TrEMBL record:
The lineage of its organism: Bacteria, Pseudomonadati, Pseudomonadota, Alphaproteobacteria, Rhodobacterales. InterPro entries: DNA/RNA_pol_sf, Rev_trsase/Diguanyl_cyclase, SulA_CellDiv_inhibitor, UmuC. It comes from the Bacteria. It comes from Jannaschia rubra. Residues 1-31 are annotated as: Disordered. This is DNA polymerase IV.
């Protein structure tokens, strides 16, 4: 039974303010933590060695760690991305054994019973695991033991790579702390108050005493006695290995080579869509592989903005690839494979025979992306932030854009849900500095000059104060006061004053133009 955990995760750094100079990337030797949202603010999800030496503790508050280490670098943790990557890694790890499963948020467990001899023994198998995982950029702690509980404990509280089994197992796990028993925080606190610090201390206590104090087997899943039995092998704990995702693929071997296989796609595409419909799924990506008689393979791919299983539409998406296809001496084999399969419920056709507007938008995005490229067609990508430049973004519609807006209910009213506050229809990517004339320093503007042209303000509304995000802002970042103004020509603009006079964070406040209203 092998068990290992990832020691560190990486997440892209958020973009800095658009008008600031981009900050350098995080230094590998500098204190760095990954932060996740907690009940009372951001908490530390993971930390590097420098941060832990500076006082950062996993689960502690980011503000407390910054008080101990002012130079601490904080990056938001991508918990959903880490979970998805771990699930893919679990399937990838089945090269060593047929049974693997996710074990917690940062590890996986493999049942290697009967598989180690295929790799030259247990030590050689662990060395191969470590080498391959390090090639993927993963720092690992790995352990092999006869039981799941012992492997879990040794991977976290033992050596970086350890093998333990047979008669030495009980003596080895007795040296580990009680935290290696996979108990909840309340139980661990009770054990420490009773002076029980190691697993061996619990083994020396009569079983009847543990049962009376913490419950009998079967009444609770994580009692100290139950965890001890699982660790030593007295109680079985099999690995529940999830079934691999179903692969939707259709292969056709042609009786003779053809130069243009486009006319032969209808039958295999229909079969592929029928298999998807039977499983209640649709595809977001499609791959066509064409094999020439000389052994050369050509791979063509297309994407969809939402799950789709319309054979005619998918064939149209592939049609542009045949314009510059090199057939050589002809193709004798083709295969179609569904990529990024998602659940897709059957939808009722409209009574008037019309086309659903959401489906029409998704179809248009697919055709434009197939013709112009995946990066050319983008969709709004709203984020959780009250800063305008961070709350509104754009991403490719086929890869990471808010394609869920095309799902039922996403654009039900014909557009995106309006935000709580009115925002300009056009937001400048980089706010532009302007010269402003005002009566009092904290008052509204009277005139301003933008791009060498003066403007007289007839009406204004505001201010709307937006404070910087303290958990990610740089030291000295100033707050903003936004004003909606209407000039003499009738145009409306969105201005903001950065900073306040006498706030101790700079000189006189600066003014910027951030957007234009219709």
């Amino acid at each position: 039974m092998a068990r290992w955990e990832r020691a560190e995760a990486t997440t892209p750094r958020p973009d800095p303010a658009p008008w600031d100079d981009p900050a350098p990337g995080p230094d590998a030797d500098a204190p760095l933590v990954l932060a996740a949202e907690g009940p009372h603010g951001p908490v530390i999800h993971a930390a590097n060695v420098a941060a832990m030496q500076a006082g950062a503790v996993r689960g502690g508050r980011v503000t407390d760690a910054r008080a101990l280490c002012p130079d601490l670098q904080v990056i938001p943790a991508d918990l959903a991305g880490d979970a998805a990557a771990l699930e893919r890694l679990v399937l990838w790890a089945r090269r060593w054994c047929p049974w693997s499963a996710v074990d917690g948020a940062d590890g996986m467990v493999l049942d290697t019973t009967g598989s180690d001899h295929l790799w030259g023994g247990e030590a050689a198998m662990l060395a191969d695991m470590e080498t391959r995982l390090e090639a993927l950029g993963q720092s690992v702690r790995i352990a092999l033991a006869p039981t799941h509980g012992a492997a879990w404990a040794l991977a976290r509280y033992g050596d970086a790579r350890e093998i333990c089994g047979g008669p030495a197992l009980k003596a080895r796990v007795a040296m580990l702390p009680v935290a290696a028993l996979r108990l909840d925080g309340t139980t661990l606190l009770t054990l420490r108050r009773l002076g029980l610090k190691r697993a061996g201390d619990l083994m020396a206590i009569p079983r009847a005493t543990l049962e009376r104090r913490f419950g009998r087997d079967g009444k609770a899943l994580a009692t100290p006695l139950r965890r001890l039995d699982q660790m030593t092998g007295a109680l079985p704990e099999p690995v529940v290995s999830a079934a691999p995702p179903r692969r939707f693929r259709v292969v056709r071997r042609l009786p003779e080579p053809v130069m243009d296989p486009q006319s032969l796609l209808e039958e295999p595409m229909t079969d592929l869509c029928a298999d998807l419909a039977q499983a209640g799924c649709g595809l977001r990506g499609l791959r066509l592989e064409l094999y020439r008689t000389d052994g050369t393979a050509t791979r063509l791919e297309s994407g969809c903005a939402r799950a789709n299983r319309d054979a005619a539409h998918l064939i149209r998406l592939l049609s542009r690839h045949f314009e510059s296809l090199d057939a050589g001496f002809g193709f004798d084999t083709l295969s179609l494979e569904a990529l990024r399969v998602e659940d897709m419920a059957a939808a009722q056709v409209r009574l008037d025979g019309g086309i659903d507007s959401e489906l029409a938008v998704a179809t248009l995005i697919d055709r434009l992306s197939a013709r112009l490229g995946g990066q050319a067609v983008q969709m709004p990508d709203p984020r959780a932030s009250h800063l305008p430049e961070r709350a509104e973004g754009w991403a490719p519609a086929l890869r990471g854009g808010r394609a869920d807006l095309l799902a039922p209910g996403g654009l039900g009213g014909g557009g995106m849900v309006a935000p709580a506050r009115d925002r300009p229809v056009r937001l400048l990517q980089v706010p532009e500095r302007i010269e402003v004339l005002y009566a009092v320093p904290e008052g509204p503007p009277v005139r301003f000059k933008w791009r060498r042209k003066p403007y007289l303000i007839r009406r204004h509304q505001g201010p709307e104060r937006i404070a910087p995000e303290w958990w990610r802002a740089r030291p000295g970042t100033r707050l903003r006061d936004y004003y909606k103004v209407e000039v003499a020509e009738g145009a409306r603009y969105w201005l903001f004053r950065e900073g306040m006079a006498g706030d101790g964070r700079g000189d006189e406040p600066d003014w910027f133009l951030h957007g234009m209203f219709a």
